[in-house]
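dumping this here so i dont lose it
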């Protein structure tokens, strides 16, 4: 495999590009340091202003922070821009609204990636999944702007039974009222390929990585919360990605987890967790030939090539599903990776460079 440059666009502007994503085969969405969000046709080089990522009112924390790390999410023509480690975000939906603001509470937001995901339901209606608080997820119908989960409880299914079962075995020192609200910090969200599930790369007190999976329809219909726990590990914000409709892969370091006899040189592993009967079962382990040395990189699975792609700020690595290292490249100022087009996007102030990952001819 190799990486080859397929496009380079320099914008004649006094502003600097802070973030960008490839939203389709021919379009980019850019966030400039002024807050202006643009859609760019890569064929004609035409740039269309969408909205300005600035608050129209004054907030105690200053509102959307253009100097803080951001993420851009797209679905068809819909664009969402959020502060990753703060509390503000905006939605742009052509034909519906130019700029709809949403936010979350700030409890440990500085170490919890803003949970955001976009999907179309079976009828083709776009929805936004987003965090309202550290332990609170909402789902909004973007056609009507109705929050469909507005009355959802923050108590887990069978919380009372688990409480009673626990204290039948252990002496009770906790005299607080019960059941208690959902004790989980939601993190970055990833939708399964069939959009049935969303996975949260979140955490729990300890502190520890704690990744959970939620059925979208169940989340919408059931009053109480029910999630499928994948596992919990050292708090490293480790990489994960979906492999198929019901299997998710998680990057695992035996040394970081304190496994017996593990050293820094011990190969990393990729663990497959398959959902069956509302539980996640460890179904497969892959030993990596060379450690990616980026436990929290962006991780993607390419089903056509049967490979994993790891992308970090300055590095791209491709690993086969058997653990063999197929490609590694340093020195890219990588901002985002588009899984559908296999394209790396790099930003250099006013210039966007696109690189394609391709298979070399045998």
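and the seq i came up w/
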């Amino acid at each position: 495999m190799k990486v080859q440059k397929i496009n380079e666009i320099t914008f004649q502007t006094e502003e600097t590009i802070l973030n960008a994503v490839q939203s389709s085969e021919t379009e980019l969405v850019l966030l400039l340091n002024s807050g202006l969000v643009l859609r760019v046709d890569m064929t004609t080089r035409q740039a269309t202003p969408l909205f300005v990522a600035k608050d129209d009112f004054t907030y105690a924390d200053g509102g959307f922070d253009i100097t803080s790390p951001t993420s851009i999410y797209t679905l068809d023509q819909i664009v969402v821009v959020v502060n990753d480690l703060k509390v503000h975000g905006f939605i742009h939906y052509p034909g519906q609204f130019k700029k709809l603001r949403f936010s979350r509470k700030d409890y440990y937001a500085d170490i919890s990636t803003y949970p955001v995901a976009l999907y179309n339901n079976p009828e083709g209606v776009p929805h936004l999944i987003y965090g309202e608080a550290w332990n609170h997820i909402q789902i909004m119908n973007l056609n009507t702007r109705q929050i469909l989960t507005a009355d959802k409880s923050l108590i887990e299914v069978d919380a009372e039974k688990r409480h009673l079962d626990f204290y039948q075995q252990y002496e009770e020192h906790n005299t607080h009222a019960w059941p208690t609200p959902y004790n989980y910090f939601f993190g970055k969200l990833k939708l399964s390929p069939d959009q049935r599930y969303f996975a949260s790369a979140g955490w729990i007190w300890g502190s520890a990585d704690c990744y959970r999976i939620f059925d979208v329809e169940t989340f919408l219909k059931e009053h109480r919360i029910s999630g499928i726990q994948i596992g919990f590990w050292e708090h490293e914000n480790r990489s994960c990605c979906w492999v198929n409709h019901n299997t998710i892969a998680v990057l695992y370091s035996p040394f970081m987890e304190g496994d017996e006899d593990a050293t820094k040189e011990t190969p990393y592993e990729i663990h497959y967790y398959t959902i069956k009967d509302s539980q996640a079962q460890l179904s497969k382990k892959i030993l990596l030939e060379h450690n990616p040395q980026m436990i929290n990189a962006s991780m993607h699975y390419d089903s056509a090539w049967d490979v994993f792609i790891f992308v970090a700020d300055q590095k791209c690595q491709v690993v086969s599903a058997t653990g063999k290292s197929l490609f590694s490249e340093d020195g890219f100022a990588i901002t985002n990776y588009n899984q559908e087009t296999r394209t790396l996007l790099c930003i250099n102030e006013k210039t966007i460079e696109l690189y394609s990952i391709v298979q070399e001819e045998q």
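The two ends are 10 Å apart (CA to CA).
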